[in-house]
Amino acid sequence: MLALLAQATDDFTNTTIDTTNSAAATGVIAGLGILWLVFMLIWLVTTVFSIWMFIDALIRKDEDFATGSKVMWALLIFFFNFIPAIIYFFMVKKKSGQNGGTSTPTQSTGGTDAPA
Predict the structure, then answer these.
(1) What is the span of the domain harbouring residue 82?
(2) pLDDT value of residue 46
(3) Over the chain, what HEC string results?
(4) What number of other Cβ atoms are within 10 A of residue 102's Cβ?
(5) Which of 15, 66, 73, 81 has the highest CB neighbour number within 10 Å of its CB?
(6) Phi/psi class of residue 15: alpha, beta or left (left: φ > 0; alpha: ψ in -120 to 50)?
(7) How far is CA 67 from CA 44, 63, 71, 74, 87, in A?
(8) Per the structure, how many domains does the chain have?
(9) Contact present, 53 and 63 (Cβ < 8 Å)
(10) Does residue 33 belong to any structural domain of this protein?
């Protein structure tokens, strides 16, 4: 057992590090780092979009859902994230308007300002 340990330490002490390919290794590591950053950015954008569509599905009125129901869309977006969020965006949000529904906003007529 000791002979194997001695042989292993001799192998480690006689090892030389080849520095001729260090530039190539640095390039590969930098490339992988950039690729990781790109994927993290894509993940962040898709996650934010999915959360935005999930919240929109929860606060939208039931009358605005031409296809399916509020609960169905919320569950689909919650469990399957990005693909149902894209479908929801075009099937529900775009058709019913950007203001969160088809109902028109009411304008307040009361107030203390009188026209001059």
Answers:
(1) 46-99
(2) 96
(3) CHHHHHHHHHHHHCCCCCCCCHHHHHHHHHHHHHHHHHHHHHHHHHHHHHHHHHHHHHHCCHHHCCCCCHHHHHHHHHHHCHHHHHHHHHHHHHHHCCCCCCCCCCCCCCCCCCCC
(4) 13
(5) 73
(6) beta
(7) 28, 10, 12, 13, 11
(8) 1
(9) no
(10) no
CA angle 106, 109, 114 (to 5 degrees): 150
Q: Which amino acid is at 92?
A: V
Digit-coded pLDDT (tens) for 65-104: 777 788 899 999 999 989 999 999 988 888 776 555 544 4
Has residue 2 been placed in a domain?
A: no
Residue 66 lies in a domain: yes
Q: Is residue 16 part of a domain?
A: no
Best CA proximity match to 60, nearest among 47, 79, 73, 76: 73
